[in-house]
Design brief:
The chain is an alpha/beta fold. Helices cover 28% and strands 24% of the residues. The strands form three sheets. Strands 3, 4, 5, 6, 7, 13 and 14 form a seven-stranded mixed beta sheet that branches. Strands 10-9-8-11-12 form a five-stranded parallel beta sheet, with helices on both faces. A two-stranded antiparallel sheet has the order 1-2. It is globular, with a radius of gyration of 20 Å. The chain binds NADP nicotinamide-adenine-dinucleotide phosphate. InterPro entries: ADH-like_N, ER, GroES-like_sf, NAD(P)-bd_dom_sf, Zinc-ADH_QOR/CCCR.
């Protein structure tokens, strides 16, 4: 089997739960796409914190694993082959997509045609390959707190992968965002029209000062560690608080937990891709790594200070 016939492909794998040291690149034989499926040569596949948690065995109840396991939902690439019955995608088409099988961190992936949309030509590969997880999660979170023009939204991890999309979706609605972020990301938030507040000690006082006597209408938590409780303390109604990470606090305070699962469709992906083509949404790319440097990429992500996305390039 020669690589140039694309019968062998390289993919990220691990055989047991653990830290980034369990990750390796494996060569495997690639099947042809079945009816309704499309084979894509991956050009970019971003990485997400949830994948670390799954690999560490912390989410086994919610997302059970079988070994060897792969990683990744996000990707963008070029169609290599369309299975029987697929009429809308053909070889050479540039697409953005998602895998439901944790295997997009590879040089080739096969998915159902329902998990793809066309990549607008103006959207860079790295951004396109970062869109699905953070875009869908941000879309669901913003929808859940029913934002309207003039609202004030408090947002934790505002310059991270999910947060940086929420900031831009909220801006489109005309919402004022008070965004928690490290100092290094304050200029980016200001450029988006948001009010930056430094996280950590003094965050609560910083938010109160930014509110300047007004009342916060909604809070979206992308970090955990007390932000849901802070929202309650600020007098925000529980049904206008959404967390994508602190499910225990959500249960305790009766808040929402809308995330990717309620927006993981090609329809949402298409809507977000159109916003990118129209210049209304941009995914900040912190850094790219070759696929073979997947361990280093996750080591950086797991420091929890990424601005936007880290992307693997096969
Ligand atoms: N439920 C779902 O469907 C779903 C889907 C996707 C992600 N998630 C979860 O959502 C969370 C965010 O994901 P992500 O991809 O945006 O992560 P990320 O890109 O790694 O962002 C991490 C962010 O956390 C910020 N941060 C660090 N310490 C903080 C603190 N004390 N208070 C507030 N912010 C702090 C960092 O800000 P600075 O760099 O500015 O310090 C950084 O921007 C993760 O926990 C992830 O697992 C859930």
């Amino acid at each position: 089997m020669e690589n140039n016939q694309k019968k062998i492909y390289r993919a990220v794998r691990y055989d047991k739960f653990g830290g980034t040291d369990v990750l390796y690149i494996k060569e495997e034989i690639l099947n042809a796409p079945k009816a309704g499926e499309v084979k894509i040569n991956v050009r970019a596949a971003s990485i997400n914190p949830g994948e670390s948690a799954i690999r560490e065995g912390k989410m086994e109840k919610m997302f059970p694993s079988a070994f060897p396991s792969g990683q990744g939902s996000d990707f963008a690439g070029v169609v290599a082959e369309a299975g029987e019955g697929v009429k809308d995608f053909k070889p050479g088409d540039e697409v953005i997509g998602f895998s439901n099988d944790r295997n997009s961190q590879a040089d080739t992936v096969i998915v159902s045609r329902d998990q793809l949309t066309f990549k607008p030509h103006s959207v860079p590969w790295e951004q396109a390959g970062s869109l699905f997880v953070v875009g869908g999660t941000a879309y669901a979170a913003v929808r859940s707190v029913t934002l309207k023009k003039g609202d004030i939204l408090v947002l934790s991890a505002a310059a991270g992968g999910v947060g940086s999309v929420i900031v831009q979706l909220a801006k489109q609605i005309g919402v004022r965002v008070i965004g928690l972020a490290g100092k290094a990301n304050h200029d980016w938030l200001k450029a988006q029209g948001a009010i930056p507040v430094e996280h950590g000690e003094g965050a609560e006082q910083g938010i109160i000062a930014a509110l300047d006597g007004k009342k916060a209408d909604a809070l979206i938590d992308c970090f955990g560690s007390g932000y849901v409780e802070l929202g309650i303390k600020l007098g925000i109604e529980p049904d206008r608080i959404n967390t994508v990470i602190d499910f225990e606090a959500a249960k305790r305070f009766g808040t929402k937990t809308e995330g990717l699962s309620s927006a993981s469709t090609a329809g949402v992906l298409t809507e977000l891709a159109k916003m990118m083509a129209a210049g209304k949404l941009e995914i900040p790319v912190a850094r790219t790594y070759p696929l073979t440097e997947v361990k280093a990429a996750y080591n950086e992500l797991e420091k929890r200070h990424t601005h936007g996305k880290i992307v693997l390039i096969p």
